[in-house]
Amino acid sequence: MAGLPYIVGNWKMNGTRAMLNEARAIDRSAQRFPKVQVGLAPPSTLIFRMRDAVELIGVGGQDCHAKENGAYTGDVSAPMLKDAGADFTIVGHSERREYHGESDADVNAKAQAALSAGLAVILCVGETEAQRDAGDAEGVVTAQLEGSCPIADGAPEKLSVAYEPVWAIGTGRVPSVADVAAMHKAIRAKLVAIYGDAGAEVRILYGGSVKADNAAELLAVPDVGGALVGGASLTAESFLAIVGAAA
Ligand code: PEP
């Protein structure tokens, strides 16, 4: 697996200008952790200002439309994110899949659009609790990868995959270390099947209730190349504790 551990905060629909102070504090402290890559995905309204406010950390979107422009009221395209200063975008988050009905084909189109706009991509996959209880977790996640991984020259080099069990997001529950290890192994095998040798270099992040007190254990699991963090990314103190655990 290539690259530094990657810790990314997803602010979801949280944050107005006042919260840029948290981003500034995270950015200032990031220099203490040169062996960790750090990114923040604020609401799209803050991307431009956050880009100006920080120097070291990456700034990203939480989603993008698959088209470059057009009559899509309320949506934001990948070239718009790029123009606002984004380095990357998340696609396929389970909240998008659930509340906006996004299919694997939709996520694939968004990932392709992001790559075409010059953005790196964090592609989220993960099973529901019912799917895990039914013994289908690996099948669901590998099918999501099959349907949503972008296929383009240079795609694997710009791609990270975030494994986020839906039942672990915002709930305080996390899978066992053995379950995380088994899923990351299955994801790795699928990425190699899709991309060949380049699939071995794609970073696989874990996401779902990562906090200061479980980060070190989760980040030590084989083939966990970082974390996608929701709630604990909203303050510099809690997010930096996770960044520190990755250092
Ligand atoms: C997320 O939604 O990507 C996430 C991981 O959220 P949380 O850390 O709050 O579980």
Automatic annotation (TrEMBL):
Enzyme class: isomerase
CC per GO annotation: cytosol
Coiled-coil ranges (or none): none
Keyword Coiled coil tagged: no
CDD domains the record matches: TIM (cd00311)
UniProt KW Cytoplasm keyword: yes
SUPFAM superfamilies for this protein: Triosephosphate isomerase (TIM) (SSF51351)
Major localization class: cytoplasm
Compartment(s) of residence: Cytoplasm
Pfam families reported in the protein's UniProt record: TIM (PF00121)
GO BP, one annotated term: glyceraldehyde-3-phosphate biosynthetic process
Pathway annotation from the record: Carbohydrate degradation; glycolysis; D-glyceraldehyde 3-phosphate from glycerone phosphate: step 1/1; Carbohydrate metabolism; erythritol degradation; Carbohydrate biosynthesis; gluconeogenesis
Keyword annotations of the record: Cytoplasm, Gluconeogenesis, Glycolysis, Isomerase
Catalytic activity: L-erythrulose 1-phosphate = D-erythrulose 4-phosphate; D-glyceraldehyde 3-phosphate = dihydroxyacetone phosphate
Similarity comment: family membership: Belongs to the triosephosphate isomerase family.
Protein task: Involved in the gluconeogenesis. Catalyzes stereospecifically the conversion of dihydroxyacetone phosphate (DHAP) to D-glyceraldehyde-3-phosphate (G3P).
HAMAP family: TIM_B (MF_00147_B)
Name the UniProt record assigns to this protein: Triosephosphate isomerase
